[in-house]
Amino acid sequence: MDFTEITSVVEFGCADGATLLEIRNKYSWIAVYGFDYQEASIIAAKSRGLDAEVFDINDMHKQASAFVVVKSADVILLLDILEHINMPEYFVEKLREHAKDGALMIVSLPNVRNWRTFAQLFSNDWRYEDTGIFDKTHVRFYAKKSALRLAEHFGKEVIFDYRYSSVRWKAFLQRLAPSLFCGQMYCLVRRGK
User: 163-192 pLDDT, tens per residue?
Assistant: First the structure.
């Protein structure tokens, strides 16, 4: 999909709207809309002039308005959000049901197969943290195959990659063994029938 063909982007887990604001500033013709479960985040996003509303994915059956917005979206962003919800497969299937033909879903997930996981396991420990792979709010964990299975709930046309560092020596290691040294994974998925 060419950027000139995109007219609308919806982000779930938009926080203060930084990603949507960046999109709107670079591509002024694209309408952006955000959802987040924290009211403070939505207030911050709205203070930046963004259209946004509170939406709790774990309680989605009570809030149909999000799926109305999804019907017109060319791109759906799920950036570091699916690992925080109870039924991510169900949510992705609901998005597929409501998304228009050709819609693109972009997913980013932390890679649990990272060396940090092995280091904790070998030390006979598993410490949750405030951010990162071991974020204490994560309820799901993904490696490449499980990320692909999740993405296929939206469509079978999936492009997968890891996020590589801009630091040269880190990128070198990551290219040698991406599933071991990369902390993030990405899936681009075209809506399936």
Answer: 988 899 888 988 898 998 889 999 999 997
